[in-house]
């Protein structure tokens, strides 16, 4: 049970949360630890590899790949917020987390989650400019514009996360302190609030719709123009080449926004903790792994740059 203290009116306030996590699966804890640790190491290694390749290979010094490097860095930090803590809890009996620690974890998780949505939207816009306005691409996506767009992405994610976190932690908690999750996510923490959380839940729901649905609609709009431009290309080889530059991004978009919609675009979010935990495993453990895998396997320029970098490092070592 989470530690509590009594207020003057007889209400017991929670001073510490207990993350339920995978405590209902004690016989699988060692297996889950090994599986999640391996996935985490591969994810971090893959994303760091992408960042390194883009940094050292001059042919990838374009807005598209710079945005990809920022996305890889964001995904790495995203996993760092939740997975190490989850791994520690799989090994230890105690799964307690202080309220301040919970607040910090939720804030950074929301910042990085929102940033990923906005970055994918920005990458969709980059593909739109590259395919629909190729002659003006270097002017439209010049470094100062890219820097301003990147700053706007970070500030937007920071603002949304700050608002949602303040809304959730604006009142004390007094309903047992058991968080039905393996990290401090919105719905399971909000359910423990002493005050009526219906209005706050509705406000957070609309903010989530604004971030997830608005970002996704902007991406769809970009791809509507992209598809129209590709269909006007006469040669089949040209159409394939144009679409291949978007395939990896589209794959990541579908997976990322699909998981986000299942969790955050439901008014009854948190009503089924077991299902939410299963989906959360996918978008906190599996989805970040897809970024390096998809962009390495489905992007020819990244594959070529990786081979070139490996060959260069092999030659230096000899």
Automatic annotation (TrEMBL):
CDD domains: 7tmA_OR10A-like
Alphabetic keyword roster: Cell membrane, G-protein coupled receptor, Membrane, Olfaction, Receptor, Sensory transduction, Transducer, Transmembrane, Transmembrane helix
Bilayer topology term: Multi-pass membrane protein
Protein name: Olfactory receptor 10T2-like
Domain of life: Eukaryota
Keyword Cell membrane: yes
Main localization of the protein described in the UniProt heading: membrane
Residue span(s) of domain G-protein coupled receptors family 1 profile: 46-295
Subcellular location: Cell membrane
InterPro entries, A to Z: GPCR_Rhodpsn (IPR000276), GPCR_Rhodpsn_7TM (IPR017452), Olfact_rcpt (IPR000725)
GO cellular component, one term: plasma membrane
Annotated organism of origin: Marmota marmota marmota
TM regions (residue ranges): 32-56, 68-92, 104-125, 145-163, 202-231, 243-265, 277-297
GO molecular function: G protein-coupled receptor activity; olfactory receptor activity
């Amino acid at each position: 049970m989470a530690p509590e203290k009594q207020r003057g009116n007889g209400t017991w306030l929670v001073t510490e949360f207990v993350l339920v996590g995978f405590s209902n699966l004690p016989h699988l804890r060692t297996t889950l630890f090994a599986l999640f640790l391996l996935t985490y190491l591969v994810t971090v290694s893959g994303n760091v590899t992408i960042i390194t390749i883009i940094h050292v290979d001059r042919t990838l010094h374009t807005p598209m790949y710079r945005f990809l490097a920022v996305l890889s860095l964001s995904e790495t930090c995203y996993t760092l917020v939740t997975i190490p803590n989850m791994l520690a809890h799989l090994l230890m009996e105690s799964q307690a987390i202080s309220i301040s620690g919970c607040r910090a974890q939720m804030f950074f998780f929301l910042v990085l989650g929102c940033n990923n949505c906005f970055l994918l939207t920005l990458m969709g816009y980059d593909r739109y400019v590259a395919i629909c306005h190729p002659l003006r691409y270097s002017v439209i996506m010049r470094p100062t514009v890219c820097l301003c767009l990147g700053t706007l992405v970070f500030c937007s994610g920071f603002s949304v996360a700050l608002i949602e976190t303040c809304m959730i932690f604006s009142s004390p908690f007094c309903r047992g302190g058991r968080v039905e999750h393996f990290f401090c996510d919105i719905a399971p923490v909000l359910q423990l609030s002493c005050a009526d959380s219906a209005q706050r839940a509705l406000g957070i729901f609309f903010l989530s719709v604004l971030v997830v649905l608005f970002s996704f609609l902007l991406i769809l709009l970009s791809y509507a123009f992209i598809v129209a431009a590709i269909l006007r290309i006469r040669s089949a080889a040209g159409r394939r080449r144009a679409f291949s530059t978007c395939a990896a991004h589209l794959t990541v978009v579908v997976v990322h926004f699909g998981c986000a919609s299942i969790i955050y675009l439901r008014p009854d979010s948190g009503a089924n903790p077991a299902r939410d935990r299963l989906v959360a495993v996918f978008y906190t453990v599996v989805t970040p792994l897809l970024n390096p895998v998809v962009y390495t396997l489905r992007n020819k320029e990244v594959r070529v740059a990786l081979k070139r970098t490996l060959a260069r490092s092999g030659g230096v070592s000899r």
